[in-house]
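Throughout our pipeline, every protein is held as a single compact record rather than as scattered files. The record that follows is passed on verbatim for readers who wish to inspect the format.
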Amino acid sequence: MSAKEYTEDHRIVYYESDDTGHLTIAMLINLLVLVSDDQSNQLGMDTAFVNSLGVGWVVTQYHLQVTRRPKTGEVVTLKTKATAYNRYFAYREYWLLDAQGDTLAYAEGIWVTMSYATRKIATIPEELMTPYESEKTGKLPRLPRPERLDTAATVRTQPYTVRYFDIDNNGHVNNAHYFDWLLDTLPADFLRHHEPTDIRIRFENEVQYGHQVASEVVQHDLTTQHQIKLGATIAALATVTWRKA
């Protein structure tokens, strides 16, 4: 039996877009999380129920492939399914579709449950997965990992202070904010005239309210390597492939 799919329509609004009128990558991530949350709520697996088990869902890795970013006013369809899981990891897929049903973006995510008591990965409770009809398997798909930063190259750095409004209900930075931090290190002219086509990101350590982080980037033509650092600790790594707009 395949996992249950869930879909909903969404109109792209101006505050989800950049100055070119296209949906930002951070907002795209927010929409993917939204559709998965809405599926969970429909199945009775809302945040209150998950938290009652002493855990919260945390994403550890995304692989995002973008064909075209939709523009302000465009109506799109969000689709997702919790495809498979094992004892510690859950694999979820996401689609962003245009009005004709063509794929604008496809994403894969690896999720874990984090214990609120220990702030460490916990065994996924079976009752959290049963309603999705996900396949239980010993071998989940492996997402491509981002590259380590080429420190021999020129590194651009931008500091950030984590604000109260950057924090989600798990007590750490909402993962969509990482994408703003990562891409904001690139020149505005580059961002206006290039489109991301492939994004690999891995979240390695928590970032919390009040932390001082540094977003670093190395650019090799149409590939950019990124990392978010908390002191000497790497919080996230990402690799982005671009095309000219």
Q: What stands out?
A: The helical segments are 25-42, 47-52, 126-129, 175-183, 188-193. The longest strand covers residues 103-115.
